[in-house]
Amino acid sequence: MTHTPIESGSMKIQTQTIWQTEEAQRRLYKRTLYIVVLSQIFGGAGLAAGVTVGALLAQDMLGTDQLAGIPTALLTLGSACASVLVGRLTQRLGRRGGLATGFLLGGLGSIGVIFATIWNSVALLFVSLFVYGAGTASNLQARYAGTDLAKKSERATAISVALVSTTFGAVAAPNLVGVMGQFAQSFGIPPLAGPFMLSAAAFLAAGIILFILLRPDPYIIARSLANNQVQGLADSQPIMNDQPAASKRGIVVGAAVMVLTQIVMVAIMTMTPVHMKHHGHGLHEVGLVIGIHIGAMYLPSLLTGMLVDKIGRKAMTFASGLTLLAAGLLAALAPADSMFLLITALALLGLGWNFGLISGTALIVDATQANTRAKTQGTVDVLVALAGASGGALSGMVVAQSSYAALSLIGGLLALILIPVMMWSQRGQNE
């Protein structure tokens, strides 16, 4: 019998002798969630820095609005490439090796951004933002870690636990933009580099936490249990019995949901700080709006996860499309000097993204088997990251050629495509 590297020798014996009982698996499942929560608090703080000041940094260094979306495009493109790396490392080494590597690379990218601002090097800035995207990739893929040993009826809830824990760091970081800017200035560093100092420390901390604490690795255990079941060695395995057969349609639909929500969210979010700066808002106001936006992206996750598990993936995908439409319309129509309406629009934008991400992720997990799940998840996240890169790159061009209102309106209307996508999915199931 041939075994892959993560299933051979002592690991196979350990899996057969220790992790066969449902009680042992449940203990590991809960422990995994605790570790993911801790790492995601730091990971959320790391990703928020680039989101908050990336466009402003490019505008400042390049001297034009038309290229202000390039930082978001670069970090999301870097996230796409890193998603492949993280997915393949996870497939071979487990969640611990894949996620820790991505976070550590993200920390190195943040350090590179700091030096790029000190030396006023646009080339180094672009390369560093690309590497920084690896931290974003790990932060997003960490949501899968809790699902490895979860029952089907609790998968969306497990995803939501990882996402909601991101909130604590992700909301705090944008509101520290001013403080970190002053801290950077005290060392003679440009203030816009300040948030990336926080990002570097946060990503490195997240990677170290996962590397040290995520033992035994939940993906390795889940994969070994799945193989044992196929081989007839674990006939009474309660957690893995509900694993569905791989479904190409389910993967396509789940990917489509996440891609569409990512394009809409990233495009509008990227240009909001630039739009606000043009109308006299300072860094503190920008930080407040983006902080609430990121909070809406992650904070409702526990409720969203329960709703996805209870009322279904289809209903929550519909809710995502309608919420994103409302966000686009409000952002387009809101007066630029109205902080309340801008905050409301960006909060709805984050909430609609949250509905779509958790619904789409649950669809992907439902449609894959443990043996190939990590690789498929990495591939799907590549598409999601590329969608974000496209949205970020095109957003600046759309605003430069028309307006922020036009960009927001286009984004809202694009979100409505989610409804026919889910209708097609349901039709396929009934055929």
Percentage of residues in helical conformation = over 70%
| Computed Rg | 21 Å
Task: Count the DSSP helices.
Answer: 17
Average of per-residue pLDDT values: 81
Helix-strand topology string: HHHHHHHHHHHHHHHHH
| Poorly predicted residue ranges | 1-16, 233-246
Strand content: under 5%
Straight-line distance between termini: 39 Å
Strands, total number: 0
**What's the shape?**
globular
Could you give a short account of the major beta sheet?
Answer: none
Structural class: mainly alpha
Keywords summarizing the entry:
431 residues, mainly alpha, globular, disordered N terminus
Task: Report on this structure.
With 431 residues, this protein is mostly helical. Helices cover 79% and strands 0% of the residues. It is built from 17 helices and no strands. Helix 2 runs antiparallel to helix 3, helix 2 packs antiparallel against helix 5 (122-141) and helix 11 (283-298) runs parallel beside helix 14. It is globular. Residues 1-16 and 233-246 have low confidence and may be disordered.
